[in-house]
Every structure is written in C-alpha cells, then in structure tokens.
Design a protein that fits this description.
Helix 2 crosses helix 4. The two termini are 37 Å apart. The chain has helices spanning 20-27, 31-41, 47-54, 58-70, 94-97, 100-114; strands at 74-79, 87-92, 121-125, 149-153. The protein is an alpha+beta fold. A hairpin with a 7-residue loop joins strand 1 and strand 2 (87-92). A two-stranded antiparallel ribbon has the order 1-2. The chain has a two-stranded antiparallel sheet with strand order 3-4.
Length: 160
C-alpha cells in the first residue's frame, strides 16, 4: 500500500483514536470476546453453551456478551423453556453478521500459517462444496452469507 501525496509525510498527520482497525481491536479485545463471536457464527446462542464450548469462566463470557451487546454485535432474544424462567439467547445482529469476512480472514490466515497444512475445519459453499476464501480485490464479487456456508471436519486434521 502507499499513501496519496498529501499523506506521504507521515509525521504531518495522525488519525489517532479514529483508526477503524484500532476500534475493532478494542471491541474484540480479548480471546473470549472473539470466541463468543465464533460461537455465534457456529450457531451457539445460550449462555451456558458459550461457557462450555469456549472453556472460559461464566464471568468472562458474561463480560464478553455485554461488550458485544453494547457494540450492537449481538442482541438478546428472550426464550422460555416449559417450567423455567425466561432467559436470553444471543444472536448476531446485522453488524455481527458483517464480521463474517473478518472471522474467515483470521481463520484463513491461521490455516495457512499456523496449522501445518492441516486445519481442523473447512468452510465451503453449501451448494457446490467449493472452498470459501476471503480475498482483497478491486472487482465486485457476489457476497456469500452465513447461510451459504457449510462447515466440514477436515479429514487431514490430526489433533496436536
């Protein structure tokens, strides 16, 4: 990347706290927060299931959900099982769904650089089985949404 001419003197300007990347990192500031987002993409909705699937403490998951709710990434939806009190499930909002390319980009990078060629999961287009890939391009491309993606266990994966 390179800067346009008026930005070429890096000492003459700063975006400081206005940096969008910095703001995203502030939001996804802990592993637990990011793993809650992962679990939302994987279909987890209930608090106890987040705790179990992430392996984090209940207070850590509670803080993560509050942070994501305040940012408009998840929204609570009330449910009630027969004979029980009403509880909240957590679902991704439109802003949460818009994190899909961020989520998949991190997985794609980790698959390539941290998994020795054997990542645990594959993400494919549900209808065709073609691998989902995140790419930087100036060309418009059709958008793939969560419902269009199938997650498969990679047969080459071997737990470390």
């Amino acid at each position: 990347m390179r800067f346009e001419e008026r930005l070429s003197d890096r000492d003459a300007w700063s975006i400081g706290d206005g940096c969008s990347a910095g703001r995203v990192l502030d939001l996804l500031s802990t592993k637990t927060v990011f793993l809650v987002v992962r679990e939302c993409f994987y279909g987890t909705t209930r608090f106890d299931d987040f705790v179990t699937r992430i392996g984090a403490s209940a207070p850590a998951v509670s803080r993560a959900l509050k942070q994501l709710k305040a940012a408009g990434v998840v929204a609570p939806v009330v449910y009630r099982e027969p004979g029980s009190r009403a509880r909240d499930e957590y679902r991704l909002t439109e802003a949460g769904e818009d994190l899909l390319p961020v989520f998949l980009s991190l997985i794609q990078w980790g698959d390539r650089h941290l998994q020795d060629g054997r990542p645990p999961l594959s993400f494919v287009e549900a209808g065709t089985g073609r691998p989902i890939q995140v790419r930087v391009s100036a060309e418009p491309a059709p958008e793939t949404v969560c419902d269009d993606i199938e997650i498969r266990l990679n047969p080459a994966w071997r737990r470390g």
